[in-house]
Amino acid sequence: MSAFTPGPWIAEDAGFSGDESTPLFAILGPEDREGKREQIATVNCEEAEANAHLITAVPGLLAACKVLHAFIPSPVVHAAGSEPLLCGTCAAIAKAEGAL
Fold it and tell me: Which residue ranges make up each domain of the chain?
């Protein structure tokens, strides 16, 4: 997996999809030197605005998970009688980085 576009990302209302009834939001990456933002994703569904805001939070959430990870004594959690599992923070980092 290649590296993702660094944050901050923003969500921008892009009107409606072709059927004119489904909300459309553009996810934009950080500003370049000329103040322009590259579109990195599009969300179009009934929950487009909420999903777009969640997506734009990802770079910050990933950074926060990595900070928290430094304080976890063991990345593996053992529940009684079950297989070892990655802790939630470790699993979230792995998923965001394409390892899960």
Answer: 1-56, 57-100
